[in-house]
Fold this sequence. Notes:
The chain has about 950 residues and is mainly beta.
Amino acid sequence: MASVAEAMTGRMAGVQVTATEGDPDAEIRIRVRGAGSFSSDGAPLYIVDGFPVESISDISSSEIQSIDILKDAFSTAIYGSRGANGVVLITTKSGEKGKVNVNYNVYWGFKDIARKNQVQALNPSEFARWQYELAAIQNKVSDNYEPYFGAFSDIDLYDGVKGNDWMDQLFGRSGEQFNHNLTVSGGGDKFKWNATYARLYDKAIMIGSNYSRDNLGLKTQFKASKRITLDFNIRYSRIKVRGAGANSLNDSGSQTTGRLKNAMLYTPIPLKAQIEGGDDLEENSSDAVMPTVAVSDSDRKRERTNWNANAGFTWEIVDDLRLKVEAGMEEYRQETNSFYGVTTYYSKVGGSGSSVPGTPSTNYNDVTRRRVRNTNTLNYDFRKLISNDDHHLNVLLGQEYIITEQRTFNTWVDGLPDFYTAEQAWTFMGSASNASSSNMNYAADDILLSYFGRINYDFKGKYMLSATMRGDGSSKFSKGRKWGYFPSVAASWRLSDEWGMKDLKWLDNLKLRYSFGTAGNNNIPTGMGGLTQLYEVGTGSSFIYGDPVYWTPNGNGASESYMANANLTWETTYSHNLGLDFGFWRNRLSGSVEVYQNTTEDILMRYPVSGSGYSFQYRNAGTIRNRGLEVSVAAVLAEKAKWGVNFNANIAFNRSRIMDLAGLETYSQSSGWNNNVTDYYAVLGGAIGDIRGYTTLGRYEVGDFDLDYYNETGKWRTLDGSNCAGVVGDMRPGSLKLLCDENGTPVQGKIGNVQPKFTGGFSLSAYAYGFDVAANFTYSYGNKVFNANNVEFTSSQKYTGKGVIRNLSDAMALGKRWTNVNWETGALITDPAELAAANAATNMWSPYMPQTVVHSWLLEDASFLRLSSLTVGYTLPASWTRKVCINKVRLYATGTNLFCWTPYSGFDPEVDTRRATPMTPNVDYSAYPKSRSWVFGANISF
């Protein structure tokens, strides 16, 4: 496994782990029991060896000893506001008492694009015919077709011509992976240690796209005396990412430079006017740039480093009374260099783009974030004070302080020499004619002060009762609003230890448990809850490419500004969880069943305040409820001395409902793939992931029109009075048909929800005589994807002018789509009977549609069953390896993403490209395709 997240995929009920795209640095989205917010990130808290970390993407999977996920509010309560969305607990490997152990793991492999031919562009013959038909419909053949393709009489010359496969040229290369890691560990009675180094190199499938990660780690424990123990952990990671055109981890899905769209839409053949030095198509459309040039002209390199150092001091003051003092520091830095060559929109547009149009530009962005944490706990076990062994009582008191500081430096440099490559631009930034903007922003310190306590009691190990209380004070809120108090309780009953059940030989464990808890959330930007409006001032604009920019409250040409809210306070989640754990036949069959309800109130919502001089204000507004059922099962199907078979499975159901919107009828949110489209919305009684648009009824056939009226006037008029012209353009046979009201006007409404009905995974593993095999599957049913690509790939939209020549996908090839042309003569068909006959075998509408339309056909079923990984290994006999002083050698081969069954027409059913807000999940827009890979490796222990 290349990452920790891969090891979690499909393994735990109610936990969705998704690689949002195929970019090596793509965000791994982890969601526990559904979405509970309109605005804030729903990511869980990550705890590594007891210390919180910002991300697990920079942790090597070779370091991991175990992974646990806390889902209910009681188990997460001790972590306070940071655990409101669940907690991922990761324990790394430690040293053991005894001699020094050395482990070396290495693998090499290759990969290619998964579902390679899933989306194809029109070939040259189809492309030329579509361009002719588009020009003919507009009566502009002489202007829009002939200068580029020649006369219609020569159109058959394009038949059989092999065009450029831009998808293959951009995403078709064979990628490579190389990973190796070395772990050395040891220890004695008082000192244990574990040191690791790991390196991963990933040559991605997209040209110009590469990724590398280096990890160093040291974990020690020193028993200074009988009562004092010292712990010290330090981890360092460095990630280097090269290549633009991907919506990667820190872009939050906000980029618009994805190269897949460009590869699909660009002409597959050189056009006549280009060859003869006529019209320069590249000046007329931002999509009409050769894809390979666009990649090099939109280059990017990013380096991310993360230091994490933690120390712990444990002192048993007297018997059973332990004081633990922990201190930690995490320092995160990300440097991003972006290059915009002369073909990019930024360079060409001027005004809101480059200050020196027509020249290359570069942007440097540096984000530094430092987090310091101190936690002190006092834990007392009353076992000596309670003389009765049937009773056990433990009390914990604690205090925690966390401060986070952030600084951002951003600078734009325009007017570089037009022959500069990206490397030259980054090396010689000083040679530019203009530094258009440069700013430093210091975010307000984010301070969290907490006090907490916990009581655990059990009687005979059968009846258990626990209670937790935590108070969190946040600097993000104003005086009088800073503190939130979050109690939790839990009770459990081990039925298998009761009289009458204890003697059942087939029953090993039966435990009923219930918990109720509250958790707070303050996950908003600093400065939103202050009594005084905080200003972040910047110049320039970079909304096209997703780079940071700081807006003033009065706009300064910006589209958004924020008003502070002194009444802002904690968002609170109330959670009920009822579970049953079971184990039968010596735990050969074990598992759990859980039902839950999570209700999040006073949601921190980005509330629209138009007319106030600001765009938005964060408010406590709204309530979301999630209810669900989770089932996990583990079975030992066979267990012999030299062979065995194991099976694990889980399934999770979650239903989300918006209970309150604080007086708003709807709360709309654009996913941002098109600035003129507002596609997602929240409504009372609805759910996160609802999409608004038109309902598709197919296309208009000849029989839908009044033919007598057409024969008299030459104009098309529908028999039912419907008129979609205001949405889809000219009304004629072949036009997209939409649901209309009684007045014949197309109506917008909810066209669906993208959330799944249930998700899960299952795995099968076996071992026999040194061989081992493991197959891991994930699945989802009922989830949908909003395929925004198909708006671009199946309709002309507004791109119909002279020199604006775009291709379509083969879903709009002749024989599939409606056509209005007699391809023997090149004339438009005007006879209704002939028009109906020409399209009798087709089922798609005409691509001619002069504007963007969101309709239900774009919302596709994306249910899937995926073979996430398949591993086959062999461990050499110990009698062989010990002869060369090696304890163990295991050779293996692993394939990932080998198979995915899905009705979805795009590349991947788990795609999620517009992630700036949780309101807009599952949008597929120019995503970096995922890959399938095969690796071959060895685990060697000395």
